[in-house]
């Protein structure tokens, strides 16, 4: 049937007047137009489908780039926020060291804690400064809160810190800290020489019977003996008891430093006599 319709249409075009068509020719042209439309629309749909697929591929690539940019923005924003917080925290620490410098002209070297020993009989802290950085044995180590301990061993690029938590009055190798009360330096004296692991408290002994030390006082290093510098905050007095002999008293001290969350510490460098004279 389709072949017949097409044949008649061709014959009509070939023998008839192209400008003025008869009604059978018009009918045939309309019929072939409908048939062409049937074939043309699916072809258009297919062509449009391929074009849409191409556009979708481009949109997908653009979305991938946008996702990468968004991820990079979020990453950079987080880095910026972390950097801002870190800068603020370090500024506060540096303000602390500047205050200390104004008081006693000591230099404070900031160090990173790189290891903490879990051995209950040897709880040392390792920092990333050594002899090449000017670190020496018996330098005290502090945080912005208070005294942590002292340098016990030095290598070229790192050092060991013996914390206050290792103080033992029965051990000949344990250091003792000559201490006094902040604001009562001429009226109070004792030795911080022991740490109780069960209570988490320090003990200060050899306190004279007439000493003015009392609960709530802030204990600092006295500087006597010229081993450790003066003015390092050790902790706060929680209780005062009569000593074993009865002629002296002992005090229980809550440490000022937090030994469980150490990330950065300061090594205190006391200026030499020549530098002090200058």
UniProtKB/TrEMBL annotation:
Highest rank taxon of the organism: Bacteria
Keywords: Cell shape, Coiled coil
Transmembrane stretches, start-end: none
Pfam families: MreC (PF04085)
Domain Rod shape-determining protein MreC beta-barrel core: 113-269
Keyword Ribosomal protein tagged: no
Residues forming coiled coils: 73-107
InterPro entries for the chain: Cell/Rod_1 (IPR042177), Cell/Rod_MreC_2 (IPR042175), MreC (IPR007221), MreC_beta-barrel_core (IPR055342)
The protein's role, per its UniProt record: Involved in formation and maintenance of cell shape.
Family: Belongs to the MreC family.
PANTHER family reported for this sequence: CELL SHAPE-DETERMINING PROTEIN MREC (PTHR34138:SF1)
Protein name: Cell shape-determining protein MreC
Organism: Paenibacillus spongiae
Upper lineage: Bacteria, Bacillati, Bacillota, Bacilli, Bacillales
């Amino acid at each position: 049937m389709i072949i017949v319709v097409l044949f008649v249409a061709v014959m009509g075009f070939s023998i008839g007047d192209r400008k003025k068509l008869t009604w059978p020719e018009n009918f045939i042209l309309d019929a072939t137009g409908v048939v062409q439309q049937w074939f043309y629309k699916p072809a258009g749909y297919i062509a449009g489908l391929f074009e849409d697929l191409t556009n979708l591929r481009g949109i997908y690539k653009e979305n991938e780039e946008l996702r990468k940019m968004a991820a990079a923005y979020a990453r950079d924003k987080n880095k910026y926020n972390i950097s801002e917080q870190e800068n603020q925290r370090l500024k506060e620490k540096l303000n602390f060291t500047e205050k200390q410098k104004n008081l006693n002209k000591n230099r404070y070297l900031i160090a990173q804690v790189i290891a903490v020993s879990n051995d209950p009989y040897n709880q040392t802290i390792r920092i990333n400064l050594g002899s090449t950085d000017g670190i020496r044995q018996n330098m005290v180590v502090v945080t912005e809160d208070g005294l942590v301990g002292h340098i016990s061993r030095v290598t070229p690029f790192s050092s060991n810190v013996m914390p206050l938590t290792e103080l033992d009055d029965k051990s000949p190798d344990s250091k003792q800290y000559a201490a006094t009360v902040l604001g009562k330096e001429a009226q109070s004296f004792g030795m911080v020489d022991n740490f109780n692991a069960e209570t988490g408290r320090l003990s200060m002994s050899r306190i004279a019977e007439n000493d003015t030390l009392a609960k709530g006082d802030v204990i600092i290093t006295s500087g006597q003996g010229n081993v450790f510098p003066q003015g390092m905050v050790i902790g706060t007095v929680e209780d005062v008891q009569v000593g074993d002999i009865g002629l002296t008293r002992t005090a229980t001290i809550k440490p000022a430093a937090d030994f469980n969350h150490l990330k950065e510490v300061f090594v205190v460098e006391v200026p030499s006599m020549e530098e002090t004279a200058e």
